[in-house]
Amino acid sequence: MMDPLSITVSSIALLQACNAVLNICYNAYEILKDRPGAISKVQDEVRGLRGVLEDLFQLAIDDEKLNGYHGRKPALKVLAQSQAEKGPLVLCSEDLGALEKILSAKFTKEPGSKLRAVLQAVSWSLTEKEIKPILERLARSKAALNLAISADEVALLLELSKMSSSMANDVVNIDRNLAELTSQLSDQNMSQAQERILKWLSPIDPWESYTSAVHRCHDGTGLWFLESKEFRDWRDKSGRNLWLSGFPGSGKTTLLSNVIRHLIQWAEQDEIHHPMIAYFYCDFRNSKSQTLANLLGSIIRQVLRKGGAIPSLVEDAFSTSTGAGHNREPEVEFLLKVLELVSCEGRIVVLIDALDEIEDRAESLSFFRDVQQTMRNISFLVTSRDEQEIRQNLVGFRNIRIEDQVTEVDGDIAKYTNYRLQTDPSLQWLNADIKDDISKSMQKQASGMFRWVQCQLDTLSKLRTVKAIRQSLKELPHDLYETYDRILARISPADHEFARRVLLWVSFAAAPLTLKELHTAIAIETDMDYLDEESLLHDPSDILSLVSGLIAITDKGYVTIAHMSVKDYLLSPKTRSSQVTSSFALTAKGSNALLCQYCLAYVSFAHFRQGPSKTSEDFLEREEKHPLLRHAALSWPYYYRLAIRNEDLTTSAMQFFSEGGDRKLFMSWVQAINADSLSYWNFYPRHATGLYYAATFGLTDVVDQLIKSGANLNAPGSRYGGTPLHGAVWRNHVPAAKLLLEAGADVDKLDTHRMSPLHLAGVTNNDRMTKLLLSFSANTEITDFKGRKPLEIYASRSKRTGWEAHPPGQSRAKGK
User: Fold this and answer.
1) Comparing C-alpha atoms, which of 558, 661, 534, 649 is closest to residue 601?
2) This protein's superkingdom (predicted)?
């Protein structure tokens, strides 16, 4: 039996252990500095435990002075007696030791090698999964210690009993985590040149999306799918490709991530065939993940990384596309050829989430429609909503509808609900009866809606009394839209405008915004000359509570819509027609028009009228003071193309590009869009023209107006002396190129690398553009800096992508 003195000694040892863990956390910030909040869960839990231990330490001393257990804290006796059967103090000691061991292995002051530093950062997501059960046990131990401090012996005894039974359910499968890490990091030793090629194939690495989703998987869920005959036939290559369809909020992404985890382990065990697993998430929150080119490129990138070699076909295409100062992204046609090539080396298993969220729908569905005939060595599993257009194109895929498996999905929901009730600190305090009522209510109304259950549990976790929870259970919303109605209804009228702007930005931002960027964005007014500090929210983190439940923050600090159904809800006629929610309703074109106006206002601030930064220090200070600069500068033309055209918007764009406009302001913008890093702050064309950039961004109506206003059609505007026609050709903006040619632009003008527009059309392998230039008598004999003629480049690119060269405009024939 322990006495108060023993509890005091244990508390001191545990306080020292807490400090050791916190010191490692501070070191971890250097490695995880691009992932705000990644280590904060550990710090918060350990700091909280340290505070409780300090209180317990003082009470144990006081109790000893009051003659041991007969003093004013009799619950200390129950706590002391529990130590013989692994009570909270013993468990804390073990868990803090385990936590220190795991973290110290990954986050030391001296990584030891560059490779190890890379592994430390990349493997953090798996480390999070490994330490999550430890943090949950620490939370339970902390709750028990708090009960001892409050002298509630009965509650303490119940808590100790719960801890004992809960421990039996805690399984930390480190081997599985290591297998996943090994699979993902099997070839980190590729050269820097090879890494550049892989990144050129696709800017999207789906690892973060996978780790984020797989964290929501719970042991024992998804077995109805993993053990189904359809899945096993597909996995073992005796069945057709699979299409898993389901309604919004049914947990498709989480289920697919569970399947990926299963397949990674399965592939590791298959030492004969060595199947390669590749996956991709079409994420509505990231426009780059919504193109077929980036999807295919990412799949190829994963396969090549695991294979450890890059084919000469890819190396040659990379060299051509990035030579002479140009940077051309790979075309779909080329990527299809490469995918066919790498699939000849062995079986590839490809999993794609949210096919319905891809932008170039017709081209993408055409690929999946024909894939069973063209790529027999690749097994595909895709998820999406059940839409008619998708169903018509995936006729060769075996369809598994989640709607037909609601009973099985509800079983998974029950496991998820019970997990939340056991581990969520905001729900743990509830007694068994109310937890049982919550579980039954969720199962009764879930009907396969994972997202709906998550929202209800989030709401219940914020309530402070059992009475309030019981009342809430009687008034549960019927569906997701009603759930979102209630969230918006709870927002104070004084916060409506801020909340509306948050939802606007996170729903339609061209690229995800950090909390700092969003904090600035929602304070912009279209008539501002500078950002009014008094209009900013006091704390950027207030954004997260403004529309809690509708937005989320990623490990890297980006603020996003919590779920695709939220954007659907904001765009729905129902939201627009309701008096309560109409002020939050959005339209796609109207939203893009607003974002364009906000971004144009921001890049036109008085500070930028001073002209480009003259030193790297000045540029760094400018970026620090204006955190939205890079996003606003790059994105406003994108928003403009998608927006509803109105006279004010077109006038603003025209003024920005006009020769008679503010040249210093324009050049500040040119510097911002070209300086993608501090080392490039001074790498921008001083001779840039408005017409060149309007053509490059494909702003056809602005190009038309600038031509009519007398802009110089052939003035060089790019870093390499390219004209507006060069810009339009390089970015495949055929309508803009046609306007320039019809106005008299020189079709054979050369840039500083002796590249004509026809040369660039050959590099991009664009039939329509090549045919257009030839129709305006483009010179086919002129040679570039390597001595190549335009159609030689065109023919070379055609052969690399597996097609015979042919006169532009004629139909293609597949090369033999």
Assistant:
1) 649
2) Eukaryota
Q: What is the spatial distance between Cα 60 and Cα 286, in angstroms, rounded to a whole number?
A: 54
Q: Do residues 705 and 654 touch, judged by C-beta distance below 8 A?
A: yes
257-292 pLDDT, tens digit per residue, is 999 999 998 998 877 778 899 999 998 878 889 999
Contacts of 184-191 spanning 24+ positions with Cβ under 8 A: 184/122, 185/119, 185/122, 185/123, 186/305, 186/306, 187/305, 187/306, 187/307, 187/308, 188/115, 188/118, 188/119, 189/115, 190/305, 190/308
pLDDT above 90: percentage of residues in the chain = 52
Under 8 Å CB-to-CB from 51, ≥6 apart: which residues? Answer: none
Residue 211: half-sphere exposure toward Cβ, Cα within 13 Å:
20
Q: Which residues contact 679 (CB under 8 A, 6 or more apart)?
A: none
The per-residue pLDDT for 659 is 81
Exposure string of 646-684, with b = 16+ CB inside 10 Å and e = fewer, is eeebbebbbbbbbeeebeebbbbbbbbbbbeeeeebeeb
| Alpha helices (H) in 604-660, listed in sequence order | 616-625, 629-642, 647-657
Give the 3-state secondary structure of residue 240.
coil
CATH topology assigned to domain 487-586:
Arc Repressor Mutant, subunit A (1.10.10)
Task: Give strand ranges (E) for 362-486.
Answer: 378-384, 398-401
> Distance between CA atoms of 332 and 91, rounded to whole angstroms?
56
Quote the CA–CA distance of 266 and 180 in Å, as a whole number.
11
Residue type at 85 in one-letter notation: E
Chain centroid offset of residue 140 CA:
32
Give the residue, 32 or 378, on which the prediction is more confident: 378
Task: For residue 766, give every residue at least 6 positions away whose Cβ sits within 8 Å of its Cβ, in sequence order, or none.
Answer: 729, 732
SS (H, E, C) 38-83: CCHHHHHHHHHHHHHHHHHHHHHHHHHHCCHHHCCCCHHHHHHHHH
Amino acid identity, position 686 = R
139's tokens: 């939370």
CATH number of this structure's domain 185-405: 3.40.50.300
